[in-house]
């Protein structure tokens, strides 16, 4: 067998007087015994050894020099897919936090466009043909910094949310996979791990999502993130920050289950040996994100409505309630849209079935690079951390041999 230019060879023992243990130990080097002397591969004599136990002692140094080269050439491949044993959960959390912050901050302008394009009754100044047209109009009419207004609150929320998200996912995925199919990948485990990780992620991320989307709306009345948070607390109470939480979970649980299962399946096809392969992580992440985003767009439209409490939608509800009650004053209590059921009914009343897919183009365009960035950064950190652990372990082994 040849590996990295080093060839291991068999040993042939022609003298019956040689101890069988010497013959077994000499496997891997091309030497022959002849008349009690040792011949090299060319037939030249390299030394004389008596056919006794002392011969075994004299032969040992020759073998000892060959052994380290052989072991180095067949050095085991780094298993980066699962971080090394003993790595603290904080390692997963750090990699996840960096991935989450980069994902959301880099794609924030597209997220702003998505929020506006999901408006059920956009104002004349906020009607766009496509994503690029929206970005051009926003920059031209509202300023170059308008597409990233509110990014700071998202960065603050994305760090801890994604830290918990990836740490929970890795822990549950490996534990459940080992319980179901030890030593193999389980799509069921991947889906369950994604769902459980989403519950923790959304619990921390939902308040940031509410503030972010209020800041992203056209003609947003809030001067800053703190002004938006203070206004929400005064006018709508603490419940406003979690009004869309159940809808967010209803959307994100199937989204993440589909996302993780698709990603892991594509990794099996594109990267069967599960090595660090940036191109496969980018392609798998982008396709998984696009598929999951398109399938869950109707729920995202409802979530946006619950977060923004679009004024025109509230007027429609109030008018319908007033007509049903026979008096305008009867609708005074219906000031907010709450609950997934009411959000679905409102979206359907205002635009029918097509309204559930408003902004689907922007959502897919946002999610493809977003999930590609997230997975690429996360897998890169996993690889770097694993490589350093592996090198540290090898140095420790060498020091121990010395």
TrEMBL record:
Broad class of the protein's primary localization: mitochondrion
Catalytic activity: Fe(2+)(in) = Fe(2+)(out)
A GO MF label: ferrous iron transmembrane transporter activity
Signal sequence bounds: none
Topology class, membrane: Multi-pass membrane protein
Protein family: Belongs to the mitochondrial carrier (TC 2.A.29) family.
Domain of life: Eukaryota
GO cellular component: mitochondrial inner membrane
Compartment list: Mitochondrion inner membrane
Function: Mitochondrial iron transporter that mediates iron uptake. Probably required for heme synthesis of hemoproteins and Fe-S cluster assembly in non-erythroid cells.
Organism encoding this protein: Seriola lalandi dorsalis
UniProtKB keywords: Ion transport, Iron, Iron transport, Membrane, Mitochondrion, Mitochondrion inner membrane, Repeat, Transmembrane, Transmembrane helix, Transport
PANTHER family reported in the protein's UniProt record: MITOFERRIN-1-RELATED, MITOFERRIN-2
Pfam families with a match to the protein in the record: Mito_carr
Protein name: Solute carrier family 25 member 28
Chain positions of Solcar repeats: 87-175, 185-269, 276-384
InterPro entries for the chain: MCP_dom_sf, MCP_transmembrane
Gene: SLC25A28
Gene Ontology terms describing biological process: iron import into the mitochondrion
């Amino acid at each position: 067998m040849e590996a990295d230019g080093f060839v291991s060879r068999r040993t042939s023992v022609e003298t019956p007087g040689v101890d069988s243990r010497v013959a077994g130990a000499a496997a891997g080097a091309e030497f022959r015994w002849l008349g009690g002397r040792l011949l090299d591969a060319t037939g030249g004599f390299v030394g004389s050894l008596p056919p006794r136990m002392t011969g075994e002692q004299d032969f040992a140094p020759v073998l000892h020099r060959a052994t380290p080269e052989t072991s180095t050439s067949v050095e085991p491949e780094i298993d980066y897919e699962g971080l090394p044993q003993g790595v603290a959960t904080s390692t997963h959390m750090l990699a996840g936090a960096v991935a989450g912050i980069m994902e959301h901050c880099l794609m924030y302008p597209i997220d702003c466009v998505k929020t506006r394009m999901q408006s059920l009754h956009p104002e004349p100044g906020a009607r766009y043909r496509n994503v690029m047209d929206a970005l051009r109009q926003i920059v031209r009419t509202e300023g170059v910094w308008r597409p990233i207004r509110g990014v700071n609150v998202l960065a603050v929320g994305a760090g801890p949310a994604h830290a918990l998200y990836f740490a929970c996912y890795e822990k549950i995925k490996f534990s459940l996979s080992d319980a179901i199919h030890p030593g193999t990948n389980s799509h069921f485990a991947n889906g369950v791990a994604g769902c459980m990780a989403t519950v923790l992620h959304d619990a921390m991320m939902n308040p940031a999502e509410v503030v972010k989307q209020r800041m992203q709306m056209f003609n947003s009345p809030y001067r800053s993130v703190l002004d938006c948070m203070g206004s929400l607390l005064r006018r709508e109470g603490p419940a406003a920050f979690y009004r869309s939480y159940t809808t967010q979970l209803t959307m994100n649980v199937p989204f993440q289950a589909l996302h993780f299962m698709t990603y892991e399946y594509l990794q099996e096809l594109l990267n069967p040996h599960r090595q660090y392969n940036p191109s496969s992580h980018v392609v798998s992440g982008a396709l998984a994100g696009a598929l999951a985003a398109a399938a869950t767009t109707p729920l995202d439209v409802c979530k946006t409505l619950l977060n923004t409490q679009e004024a025109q939608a509230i007027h429609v509800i109030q008018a319908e309630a007033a007509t049903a009650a026979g008096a305008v004053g009867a609708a005074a209590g219906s000031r907010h849209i709450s609950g997934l059921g009411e959000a679905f009914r409102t979206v359907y009343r205002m635009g029918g079935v097509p309204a559930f897919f408003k902004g689907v183009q922007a959502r897919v365009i946002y999610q493809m690079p977003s999930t590609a960035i997230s997975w690429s950064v996360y897998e890169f950190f996993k690889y770097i951390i694993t490589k350093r652990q592996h090198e540290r372990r090898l140095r420790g082994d060498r020091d121990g041999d010395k």
